[in-house]
Design goal:
alpha+beta, 9-stranded antiparallel β-sheet, two-stranded antiparallel ribbon, globular
Amino acid sequence: MAFGLLLGMPGLASCADAGAIEEWPVFERRVRDGEIGPTEGRAEIARWAGVLEAAYPAEGFDRRIFFPLKGHGLRSVGGRNGEGYKPAGYEFLGGSRHKGHPAQDVFIADRDQDGREDRTGRPAEVLALADGVVLSTFAEWTTDQAYRHIRGGNYAWIYHPALKLFSYYAHLQDICVGLGGTVRGGERIATLGRTGTNAFPARSPTHLHFMLLRAADMAPVDPYPMLANLP
């Protein structure tokens, strides 16, 4: 089942700035763990916007959009007409303590909560929204105290140069891409799981937490209108 929206198709860029890529996860984890103040954090956001725009020119990346969960579409998004998106109070620099819900949750039917789709018996495949560069992944979440505070569980961040957006995929199980790798829109990047502080308990249906942030200032962008325009 294809869920792609063609917005332009320049060739996929092959450029890479390995040094810069290796530093972004350090910044991301400092934010996640509350180890960076607002003044330094805002300066770093602005700096990274420039670094990434220079390292990955937009014309080298396709703008085609794909639904982030294979075999699913808008009906799998929680709430009605995207009402699950609640950005009020969200601040990227708030890390794991942030407020609001600046994302859309995409649900699968998983009655026994084994992380597999009831209709196929297989793990759900998480797909890249569009062409991009993998800037950070985390695949070490466990239920013990060391990582329990990480709300997203296992997760991945991808920068999309043609869209000037970051996409964030949370509550993953296995991650199939590595730091600095380029991905094509619709490419499998992970399988869905039940990792994360609020996703692991039995009260939570199995779902993908899918968030978009504007690269210029890390302000949230509602994915719903974009996804609603897919064929």
